[in-house]
């Protein structure tokens, strides 16, 4: 049985400016033990899908189940299986960190949880903040508390909606070590993030949402090798010829242009030479997930990739 199953989930919000379709027939399954990434630009529908999974919002049509428990008909059982780190910082300002975690344990009927709470605090770099009032914490520390709150009842399925937004580099590394350990111990993880290098390093499979639709779904390794797999990167102060400017990804002085094979590499280089573009620090490298993501998002005819039957066959070590 799948850990999480989305079946033809659609969601229409009724806004003052008329109906807004945030999700269109989204279907995919996440298997037990998977580390699954849900990616997409702002407004693609990621948080909407997670809110429906969490029972905070109702799908207009379709079904969602967690370990077989329907999130509407069998809400309490489904919710117990889930630990959700929300995108928005919501917290009760009146409690200390430890009190907040004890109260959250109580919601799930977990008693005598202080050993696990101490382990969470230690692993999330919060040990010295246990008695601090929530109001006294910085934004990044509040986010750490949200992660701890999501994990108090040791849920089999951990859902993280941009857990590293506004979090410093050191905690990002600590957080990922901890989540990766929980994943190795058997917890299923669903992650949304705009840090694509994190998704590339952590996720076994990735679904990409665009305007509420799944436009790609595959093993991370297959996504990386399937599309433009070579990138030319260089620095220049000169304008690119129009044929290249249209396809290049430019960040300040750095230009990146995809090339499918050696002949395309040669064509790019000769176009640069022909237009007298002075190139520094030229590198030819493999496309990363950001390249693949941008290519899929720019492609109006992006195919829906077929789901591979054995997602855990190729697990990054
Ligand atoms: N409560 C709401 N009422 C009306 N429209 C909403 C509501 N929540 C979200 N939307 C709209 O639904 C669409 C999807 O939003 P959602 O928050 O799911 O996107 P997202 O993929 O999580 O984006 P981000 O990366 O910015 O977090 C957007 O167009 C958003 O404006
Ligand atoms: Mg969101």
UniProtKB/TrEMBL annotation:
Coiled coil: none annotated. GO terms for molecular function: ATP binding; ATP hydrolysis activity. InterPro entries: AAA+_ATPase, ABC_transporter-like_ATP-bd, ABC_transporter-like_CS, ABC_transporter_ATP-binding, P-loop_NTPase. It holds the Pfam family ABC_tran. Gene3D superfamilies: P-loop containing nucleotide triphosphate hydrolases. Keywords: ATP-binding, Cell membrane, Membrane, Nodulation, Nucleotide-binding, Transport. Residues 4-236 form the ABC transporter domain. Belongs to the ABC transporter superfamily. This is ABC transporter ATP-binding protein. It comes from Caldimonas caldifontis. The lineage of its organism: Bacteria, Pseudomonadati, Pseudomonadota, Betaproteobacteria, Burkholderiales.
């Amino acid at each position: 049985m799948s850990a999480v199953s989305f079946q033809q989930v659609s969601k229409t919000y009724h806004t003052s400016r008329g109906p807004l379709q945030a999700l269109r027939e989204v279907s995919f399954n996440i298997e037990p033990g998977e580390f699954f990434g849900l990616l997409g630009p702002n407004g693609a529908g990621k948080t909407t899908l997670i809110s429906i999974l969490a029972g905070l919002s109702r799908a207009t049509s379709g079904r969602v189940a967690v370990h077989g428990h329907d999130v509407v008909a069998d809400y309490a059982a489904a919710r117990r299986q889930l630990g959700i780190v929300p995108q928005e910082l919501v917290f009760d300002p009146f409690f200390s960190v430890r009190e907040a975690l004890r109260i959250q344990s109580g919601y799930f009927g977990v008693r005598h949880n202080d050993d696990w709470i101490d382990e969470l605090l230690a692993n999330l770099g919060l040990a010295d903040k246990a008695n601090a009032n929530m109001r006294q914490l910085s934004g990044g520390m509040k986010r750490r508390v949200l992660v701890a709150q999501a994990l108090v009842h040791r849920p089999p399925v951990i859902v993280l909606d941009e857990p590293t937004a506004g979090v410093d580099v050191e905690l990002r590394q600590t957080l990922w070590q901890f989540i990766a350990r929980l994943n190795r111990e058997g917890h299923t993880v669903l992650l949304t993030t705009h840090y694509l290098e994190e998704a590339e390093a952590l996720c076994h499979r990735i679904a990409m949402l665009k305007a509420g639709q799944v436009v790609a779904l595959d093993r991370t390794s297959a996504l990386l090798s399937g599309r433009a797999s070579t990138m030319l990167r260089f620095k220049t102060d000169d304008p690119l010829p129009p044929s290249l400017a249209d396809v290049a990804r430019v960040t300040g002085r750095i230009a990146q242009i995809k090339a499918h094979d050696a002949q395309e590499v040669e064509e790019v280089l000769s176009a640069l030479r022909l237009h007298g573009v002075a190139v520094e620090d030229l590198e030819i490298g493999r496309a990363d997930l950001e390249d693949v993501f941008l290519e899929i998002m720019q492609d109006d005819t992006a195919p829906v990739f077929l789901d591979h039957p054995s997602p855990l066959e190729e697990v990054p070590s």
